[in-house]
Structures are given as structure tokens and as C-alpha cells.
Fold each of these.
Amino acid sequence: MLNDFLNQVGPSTVGGLASGAIYALIALGYTMVYGVLRLINFAHSEIFMIGSFAALFAILHMGITGPLSGFALAGTLLVLMLVAMAASGGAAVLLEQVAYRPLRRRNASRLAALISAIGASIFLQEFFALIVIPKLFDRPSQGRLQVPVPRLLERESLLTIGNVEIRNDHVIILVSAVIMMILLDVFVNRTRIGRGIRATSQDPETATLMGVNIDKIIRTTFLVGGAMAGVAALLYAMEFENLRYNVGFLLGVKAFTAAVLGGIGNLRGALLGGLALGLIENWGAIFFGSEWKDVIAFSVLVLVLLFRPTGILGESLQRARA
Amino acid sequence: MGDLTGENSALMIPPSQGAQLAIDEFNAKSTNVKVELVKYDSQGNPDQAVPLAQKAATEDKIVAMIGPGFSGESRNVGPVLEQGKIPSITASATNPALAQNGWKYWHRVVANDSVQGPAIADFLVKAKSPKLAFVIDDAAEYGAGLADAVAKEFEAKGVKVERDKIDPNGSDYSSTVTKVKAANPDVIFYGGYYAQLGRLLKQLRDGGVTAIVSSGDGSVDAKLVEAAGKPAAEGAVLGCPCLIPYGSDVPELKTFSDNYKAKFGVDPLIYATEGYDAATAILKAIEAGNTTAEKINDYLATIDFKGVSKEIKFGPNGDIAANIIHIYQVKNGSLTWLGDSTQAQLS
Amino acid sequence: MNANSNTHSGNPFTAFRRTVGGLGDAVRDWWAGAPGWARWIVYGLLILLAIIAPSDFIGSFMSPETHWPSLLFSPIGTYVLLAVGLNVVVGQAGLLDLGFVAFYAIGAYTMAVFGTKYGWNFWGVLVVGIFMAAVSGVVLGSPTLRLRGDYLAIVTLGFGEIVRITAQNTDYIGGARGITNIPHPPPLFGVEFALDPLPYYYLLVAAIVLVVIFAKRLERSRVGRAWEAIREDEDAAELMGVPTFKFKLLAFFIGAMIGGLTGVIWASKVIAIQPPNFPFILSATILAAVVLGGSGNLPGVMFGAFLIAWLPERFRGFADYRILIFGAALVLMMALRPEGLLPARRRRSVTGNGGEPDDARPGGAKPASTEADGMAEEVAR
């Protein structure tokens, strides 16, 4: 057992950090929306899915069939990232307009908003399975099957320490995730709109009285959260090279877990929660087998919440409460 | 009956088309009896299959059923058909336990997983003489059952076995890849469907695992190559109780392929020959003047003819008498037939 | 940019919403004012309707494409009973539970294990199954019920997944293969329980009637009032001397019992159960049924469950599109009538954390800040 652990802990850590980085980027969307609206945006997993297919659409239309390298790779990734961010961000704003705003207008309960979110999530999945994938990707009657993504970069080992290989794709994922986190942190803490977001999440009524345009703030929150899911979507498409209409579901649950683990509403908590979750899963799998991954993840979540009811870093976007 | 539109419909459409072909040929020849094929789309889901079977038996008054396609739905539908005294022939449900229910109206034209698993393991032992095998499955009924049978046979042959499971809905199999790499096996077997095997293969090869990867009938699909990518899929070995006539020269197979392609515009794929044979068995019963469900069932007990896929003759429990497993390999990005598991050679 | 922040009054959407809403409200208000005997007649008629429901005459309209009595048992009957159970937790006590399917699974597995391994009789297992589910409700609840609303949601979701994955990976209870050949209940009043869905359906109807009576009595008792207080304002309830934790745990306990009961009855019919029978989406569907019907109002909840179970089967003709339409319909219904089709009468704001009233409204956004918009524009620039 211990021997197994020592043999596998290195590679597991690398794998865990890579998947954790993707969790973290998706978790940001949950955390930001929760911070501002106190709403579990259940359809966020579909925002991610839309971004991943947008990236694939762009890849196919740019005529990329084989692996790239050097500047071509960097440029392509940047373009694809912008496409995915635009698609996910746009879809998130649209989602807010259609599924949440009418409820907000009527002061509906949060439970109603949650059901609306579940409905939107089902709708978007089916919409892709029945219409978008068969039509746009020319796969008639195969909407529920996975769609392959052409390889963007050849996997290369950059560095080997003992039995741990550091691969270029893992480095790209981690570095991109950290850069996006820093940019987002600056945006929320240093800009005017960011201040509005923080004000709204602390006290929406006072923020309104102070002249903050709540609708605009909410729209921005969805846009930014969605865009982060778009980045995750591109990285996911690049790494796993297979997309499905329901690809977001499992990742969404994991990302939400990560958000709660780190402290929901807290941006840095999302990063920490995501990476921690990725590591916990992969380390746990060494001892118990990969089939227990999810059980381990949820058990750790319950344990953490028992001792720290607001997550590891607490809720900081908003005022910490009770 | 089977999953005609759902996630695994790629496995069910060829046998239903095979059956369609047999019935259309029959109707074109026959003047006094016409046979109608009614399709029931269960999406492979037992909860949907049971009410549909009940309707088929009581309201639509079918005389025989081809299907259900999967083992899970077969198990729940079986009792309904027994009670309705409707004979059924499945072309693709390979769970061994189905034959042990004492059902009198149930038949299957393919070998079951307790034959398939050991046959694949024996083949690998013979071809590669491995010391250590790594057996992975998708923690679902079919995949885990097949993987268990393979692992047992490996151990019986003195091959050490290590196991892991993957989440069929997940994408990140890095923890499994890490385990495989640490174990450094000679052969890898995966019990499950091609979609997951494709993702797993890709990650195994990217992770630097070079051992031969094998799987069972759930993975016999050209989409495996698409999902894994050509380089990663190359050399994968697949066992299947099905006979797929990939450009075969055998006269009967060639005629079947040509007719099939002329009708549906695609090559016959997995379980198409078996679907054809299942329908043919029922049609032979009808041809012999049996038009009620009971009589068809009686006739099936004695039937013995040379089908496209194999000799069709049922044992007393409804299982096929001829237990043949065929071996396929991915070569240059497409599946090729190597022969049956006792004779096939790895190149 | 601020154009769309105005309210959309006067458009056809709003008009339609008022019509639909008016109808639902009218029904509810009449109900509230109706004398006791009128209610009993309605109850009687409903039970009568449930008894004659499986007839071919009704079936030919209700489900032309699949076997109607089978549908009446599952999903319709099981969804209704599950929704009544979940309503105790979500509608009455205001606790957001996203893993209700776990209790259903525990009930079903109890039936399967005791039935196949120990040859127990259905009625014996029924008691054990309800007990097991209730105990697991307490096991889940006692550490987690101290958490605030949304944390509870993710933890319960996790619990549902843990139960399913554990079943999948535990060989003692069949692992991924599940359990086959689950015995049927013994004959009752000379009626054989075999493959015909009708006896099971009537068994389920009997269970629903009993559970509804039980739930109604609870609602009017001290317990029901305590739940209402917790749901509306947990802190205030605590201050007033209501032992909130104990009552929340009781809600979990009772909800789990009903979930377990449904599981036992369901498993006794289906012959075989497997872990994938208990996916997360089932929890979400039952929750949707509760909210769609009108969280907290029993007739509404049952009606919602009926609709959610029946509509996709009725419209099998649309094949795949039925699920797409189902999703869109949920969004539309919530926009039209966020309190559900037949909302509970006493309150408008629901669930979440009872702790802070301002939280009950998403974002606390008051209907449009039209005057403030100009200012906000400046600030935002």
C-alpha cells in the first residue's frame, strides 16, 4: 500500500493538478454568481459545454488537422481561447436574461430559480444533442455520441524527476489557469465594475441605493464567469480531445464541490478548492481504486464543512456571516 | 426491440437492419404470409422496455420478438414475454445469467460473456504469454461482468492480474493511467464500450504505456479509432461473438454484405449478421406453417440451419449451441477480422 | 443598456401569466374556503379516479404509445409518492435536498437484499426498509443539518452519489450487476402479485393515501407549525424556543421514511435493480415536481409529480424532442409561476436559508431600479 503510494504519488500529483486547474476555472463561474445572486447556477455546466463545442467549431473551420508547434500553436490557442470565452460568456449572459431575470423581476424564490436552472440545463444538453451536433458538426443521428477533437499539440515530456514526467500539455493548463485567476483577481479588486460586484455581493440593497446598476453588475458577473468556463472548455478540449453533449455535468458537479470546498463566493477559494479536489481525488484513487474517486471527494467535502462551515477560505466576496 | 435512438444506438441499428433485410426478402418471396417488423425503441432502458414489451404482447399481439438488444432490458423484459408466451431471439444480449432463468421462450444467437471472456483471455495468453495483465472496467453491468470473466481466466492460466475501474461518464482517467504505468503489465484488457475505451487508449498511449490493449464486443466499432485517434488505436485487439464481414471473400458473407449495402447504403456492422439470422430463424418457423407464437416457439426448439454468422441451433436453455468468438484487430486505422479465437494469429 | 431593465408589463407574456396564475389561485382559494364536507367529496372523487385510472378507456387517451397501467405504477405512482416525501423536507421544513434518490435507493436495496439473501416476506422488509431509510436520513442529517441552505444542497447531492457509487462498488449487494430475482409480495386478499402492474399500482395508491393522511396530520400538528417557523425564519424560531435542529432532523427522518417506502414497493415489482436506476437526475426531477406543483402544498405537489412523470411518456411521439421541450417548459413555468401551479397559501417566499429574510430573494433586487438607473450608469462608467 505505502509502496504503491510512493510509486504513484508523483504522477498522480501532476494529473491531479491539471484536472484541478480545470475544476477551478469552472468553479469561478459558480462562485461569482453565487456571490452576487446567492444562486446555484446549475446550468453553468452547459455554459462550459457550449464553450468546448465553440472551440471545436473554430478548430475545424481553421482547418487544423494535425499538431502544431511554436508560434503557430501559441497564436492558435489564443484565438481559440477568445472564441471559447466569447461563446461561453455570451451564452451565460443570454441564460441570465432568459432563465433568471424574469424570476428576479417577480421576486421568485431561490428554489424556483434553481428549477429554472435545471430546466435550462436539460434544454441546452438536448438542444446540442438533437440539433447543434448533428447539424453544425455534420454528424446526423449521432448527437449523443462523443465528437473527436483534432490534436492541437503533440504531448512532449519537458522534464523528468524520478518517475514523474512533466508534460507540455499539463504545463499549459496550469499556467493558463493561474494567469486567468490573476487577471480575474485584478479585475474584481481593482476596477470600477469589480468594485460594483463586490458591493452587490455584500449588500445588494445598499449597493442599489448607492447607485450601482444591479442589472449591469449581474450581467457582467455572468459574462466573466462564463468566459472563465470558456477558458476551461478550451483547455479541456485540448487535453481530452473528446466532447459530448453532457460533458459538463460531471465537471459541473465537481467544480461546484470545489467552489464550496474553497469557500463559495471566494475567488481564491475556488482556485484552492479546485486544485485540492483534483489532488484529493487522484491521491485517494491510489489507495482505494479509481472507482471511489467521487466518494472520496464528497467525503472530504463533508469533513471540511463540519469543521469549517464556510469552506477552507470562507466567504469573502460577501460579508462573512453566521 | 432495442436502443434505436439512444446513446448506444450504434450497437443496435445494424442488427435491426439485418432483421429488416431478412424480413423484406421473405415478404418479397412469400405470397401467402406477410411479416411485419414493428420497432420498439427502448433506448436500452429497462424502465422503458417493460411497458413497451407489455404493450407488444397484449395490445400489438406480436408473434415473436427480435431482441431486446441489451442484457439489462432483456432481464426485465424476459418475464413479461414468458407470461405472454412470446418467443424472443436476441442477437446481442450476452449476459450469461439470462440463460439461467429457465425461460422457455427466450433464445440467443450469439455466444455469451462467460464464453467470450475466457476465449479472449486464452487468445492473449497464447499470443503474448503475459506475466502480468491489467484488467480495467467501466463499473457497469456488462463491462464489469466481462472483465471479471477475463480476469478469472488469466488467473487460472497463471497470469497475475491487477484491476482498476473508470467512471464511464468521466473523461480524466489519469489516475488509472498512473496505476497501469506503475504496474507495467504485458497486456491490458478493458471491459466496456468503445467510447470510453477510445478515451482511455488515448490517455494510456500519451502516458507512455505501450502494452497491447484488448477489449470485448462492446468496443467493436469503427468509432473506436475515431475516439482514440489513429496512432493510439493501432494494434488494439478486440474479441466478439459476432461475425462482421469486413470485406470478407466467403461467398455467403459477400452476398449478405452486398444485399445489405444495396438496401441501407452502409456496410453491415456489429451484430448485423446475427440480427439477420435471428429474423431468419423466426421466418423459417413461419414458412413451415407456424403462425402463432406458441408454435413458432416449438419450432425454434428443433431448428437447425446454417445461418450467415454460424450454425443456428439452440440448446435447451435457449443459448446457441455454437460458441464461437471472433478476434479483430485495428490495422492501419480500420478493424480487420483475424479469424476465430482458436485460430487467429496476431501479426 | 438600461432599456431592458424596465418591467415588461402589458405584453402578451404577462397577460398569459396572469390568466394561468388566476386559475391556479382561484382553485386554491376555493379550496381554502370550502367546508369540510366539500373537501371530503373531493378526496373521495380523487381516490375513485385513482381506482378507475388504469381502465383502457382512460389509457387510450393518456398513453397511446405504451402500456398505461405500467406507467401508472412507475413512473407516475412512484414519482407522486417520492414527491410527497420530498415535500416534507423541502416544502414544509424548507431544507433543500438534492439527494433524495438516496433514500429511494436504500429502500429498494433493502427489499432486494432481504428478499433474495434471507428470503424475507415483503411486509417484513417493508418495515425494515422504512427503518433503514429513516436511519440513513438521521445519519446524513445529524452532521449536515447545522449547515446553511446551499451547503446542505451540495452535501445531500454528494450523499446521493455516495450511495449510488457505493452500491456499484460493493460486491455483497451485487456491485454493478445489481440484484436480480427480487421476490414479489405475497398474495393479498386473494390477489396475486406477479407481472401484472395493477395490484402493485393499487398497493401504491393505498400507500399514497396513508402517507398523505399522515403528512396532513403532521402539517396541522405542533411539528408542522415548528417546521413552518423554521422555514420562514430559523433564527426567530430558535429564539422563540423551537429546538430547530431537532425538528429539521425529524423532517429528514420522515422524508427518508417515505422515500424508503417507495423504494421497497418499487423494487418488489421490478425483479431486478441496478445502481444506475438511482441517478442524480432523478433527485432533480422529483425536486422539479415539488416546485412545479407548488412546494409546501400537497395537492399541488402530487399534481406536479403526475405531470412530470406523465407528460414525457404521453408525448413519446416527439421522440427525443420531448426531453428538450420538458427542459424549456420548466424554465417557462418558473418564469410564469415561480410559486408553482398550486402554491401553498400561507406564504410566498420559500426555502433557502431560513436565517436571513433578505436572502430569500435572489440578489435582493427590487423590481427595477428605474430612477437609480441613470446614476448607476454613471457609476458603472
Amino acid sequence: MTPARRARLSWLHRWAGLVTGWFAFAIFLTGTLALFDTELTRWMQPETAIVPADAQLTSSAMEHAQHILLESEHVGASPSFLLLPDTRDPTLRILHYDGHNFVGLVLDPRTGEVLHPRQTEGGAFFFTFHYTLRLPDPWGARVVACIAFAFAVLVLSGVLLHLKRLIPDYFTLRLQAALPRCLLDLHVLTGSAMLPFHILITWSGLVLTAENALPLIHFSHASTSTQQSSVAQPIPPWAPRAPLNAMLQQARSHLNYAPSYVMFDGNETTFSAIQHNSLNANDLSVVFNSQTGEFTNKAAPATKLEDAFFILNGLHIARSMGSTLRWLWFCGGLTSSIMIASGLIYYTARQKKYTTSTLHLAQRLNVALLGGPLCACMGFLLCNRIIPDLWPARASLEVEGFFCIWACCGLLAIAYPPYKSWKILCWAMGIIGLGVPVMDALVVPLATLGTALHVSINSLCALTGLLCIGSQSLPATRNHHD
Amino acid sequence: MTPAPEYAHRLVAALLCWLALVVWGSAIVNFYPALTDAATQGYRAIASALAAPAMVWAFWVNTPRTALMVGAALVLCGGFLLVIQP
């Protein structure tokens, strides 16, 4: 590669990284956490821990759920759907969309008794943030699509820049070296070690956001668009009249899988099964008549092209994956986040000799937009334990807590020099990370605290906290990090 | 050191490459209305894979003029195909 071409690619890599890297970091971090959204929701609702992991769904619970659905329809509520118990979440949930998230009642699948867990958006918050940044629809999805495009350009230009040293870079990490060298090693190592993951997740993300990033232009249909009626239409009956139990038994035999969720649409009741331990995100479905309970049809098998598309979706969403692959994806997501963060900090560390306004801005943005999301994510978990269970609108208060903590990190970055604000932020993250298991132990019963779910999440939070505090004593960070 | 206007031209060329993918994809999908769903999915999967190389290519070529000319020509051809569709 000629030096001029290398300089052009470096310029592209640097500026595309600087403009989109901070958002990409938040997207990757929340996407990584969203891999365990169901588990996080269960952790954030410790009241559901009374349901054992192997609880079986009984007919009385289904009858009670059907009764609740009929009552909801009677009071004019919008259609709900049933989330049936599975290995990741053993509770029975009756959910509807509130404009931001799926909310509703939680039932014990053994008895049908309504549990009263604390209100929370749970792990779904991270999932929604990952693909909308909590911006109004459709702008959030559009911004994320643009960032996905820029990230694809970053990955390709980075690979071209380091192509010659791709193999040696696997074995290079000089922690004792000066900060810029250490950061560059870390950036290149995390980039090259997980390169197939970066390419896969970026491409599948691009395909998922392609509706916004690669729109279709239709000249001939532009003038024929119909206007939506602004008059509110009454909600037609949707709740099933025929026994759900009988339909569930039939659905099991038709699908050869345990159904994962049940949807109600007009006169149809659809039982769908997630293909667990598979990469395919195509859910198998059977449809019944809601009035008579008769089997209507089974969804036709997907074509090869559709299957390829569903596998691409499955590889990104990771909903049907087994736990080993999910943990591998989690490690991949963390590696990507470290790659982005080290690249952004490297930019400021390398140019410390020159004092330009761009550099000062980048240093402060690093504090606000790299430390901020990490601190806010752990703060979100801590808020869940601090806000009283019966506090009105506590779910939205948790979300406000997340953004308040992030805003405080931004103020910190403005108020103090970067070195000092990093130090304060590291201590704050350490305290929050260590505070999560402490608060969990104070709030949650002892029997629940010992479950694998609580042990894993509490340990990860404590480990993050300790790493943040410990990062202060790394040789490379002793002489100021930016 | 490369002058700033050259980078600006290359950035415009990169955006033209993206636009070319959109207009060519739309034209191809519109030419096969019977296969719209499959064609749309196929177009998006292929275009997503091509987008990054196409945009990086604008910075790979030696002169920004080539990048601009090729990008603009691709957009115009795609646009023409889109307009003349049945």
C-alpha cells in the first residue's frame, strides 16, 4: 500500500471513528447486556424467584390467564399476548406493548396466582436502547443504521490498515509500555482477535437496520399513498373463547416443540415456538380458530433464502442460542466495546503534546460518552434495588436514573480536567459496582441470593467495580489517562 | 499532507456510492414486482455487504476525481433505470 493511500485510509478510520465511535460504544455495550435481557429482568424482579426454574405450566394457570385475557378485552384493553414459561424465564406473563416496552401481569405457572413483582423495564431497556438509543421513532433506528454503516467502514479500513501485521498483532500487548502504545496494542489485539465476530455482527446488524439504511425508492407508487383515518377505531374482540389448554396440547403435538408464546389477532390464536439451541430466528407457528379452538393451519416451511435471512437475524439477536454460544457472544460484545474505547482514548493519548480545541473536546467526550454509559448501566441496576418496590411509576424512575447518572458524568467531564474526572468516575463506578451486590444482599431474601442468577450478576458487577478501582494502579495509567 | 478539499470530494464520492446502491437496488427490485419480498431481502443482504467496500473504495482510488465521476455515473445510471421502469 502506498503511503498516500495509507494516509487516506487512516484519515477515514480516525474521523469515522471519532464521529461515530462514542455512539457505537453505547450501542455495543447495551447490545452486549441485552444478550441476557431475560435474565436481567428476572434479577430485577426478585419477587419472581419463588417460581422454581423447572416449574411446569398447569391447566389451572392457563385457565386463569384466559380469564384475565377475557377481562382485559371486556374493559377495552389493547390485545395482549402470553409469554409461556421456558428455561430462561419460568414465569407465565401476560404482556402488551405500552409504546416503549412490553409490560403486564406475571403469573405463577403452577397455580395461576398473580405475582406482584416490582415495576421495571428490566433487561428490555438495554435491548430497546441498543437499536433506538431511546430517541423518538423512527429517528433512533435511523441514527443506529447510520452508525452501523460507519462501523462497517471502520472495520474494513482498520483491517486494510493492519493487514500486514494481522498475525503478529495477535501476540502483541505491551502493558508496561507508554499509554499510547499500550492502547494501540489493545485496540489492534481486540480488533484482530475477534475479527470474524466484528464482521458478522456488523453485517447482520446492517441487514437488520437495512430498512432505514437502504430504503427502497418507488416512483410509481409515490402518489397513491393512502391517508390513515384519524378517527380512533374501536378495538375488535381478540381474546380467545375456546379453551386455551386444549389448543396448547394440540400445538405441542403439531410443532414438536413446547410453544414459547401465544398471540391473539381477531379470530385467530397463534402458538409459536422458538427453536432453542439453534441459530435460526424463524419461530415455528400453528394457528387455531379463537372461537372454536379448531386447528386452522401451520406456517409453511421457510424457503432457503428466507432461512438464510432468519439465520442472519438469529446470529445477531441471539435469542434462540444455547447458553455457551450466548456467553461467547457476550465476550465478543465486550471485546468490541473495549476495541472502540481503546481506539477513542488512543486518539487523545497520542496527541497529548498538541493542545488543540478538538483534542480537549475529544478528551471530555471520552469521559462523558465512554465512562458515562458504563456508569449509567450499573447505576440502572443499583436504582432497581434502591427505589422502593411500591413507588409509583418506578419503572420510568429507573430509566430517569440511568439518564441522570449519564448526565452527571457529562457535567463531571465539563467541571474537571479529564485526568481528574476519569479518576472520580473510576471510583464512582467502583462504588456502584460493589454497591450492587451489597444492596442485593440487603433487599433480596437469602435463599434467592444464592441462586446462580444472582451470584453471576452480582459477581460481574463486583468484578467491574474492582477493575475500575484497580485500573488506577495500572502502569500505563499512572501518567494520566485521557 | 493531503489537502482538506480532497477529503471532502472523497466523502461526497462515498455518499454517492451509497446512493448508487440504493437506486440500483430499488430499480432491480421494482423490475421484478412478483419477487418483491425475496428480491428486497436479497438486495438488502448484498447491498449491506457491498456498502462498506464501496465507501472505502472512494478513499482507495488515487484521484478524488475518479471516485466522484464513477460514483456520479453509477447514481445516474441507477436513477435512469429507476425512472424507465414499467
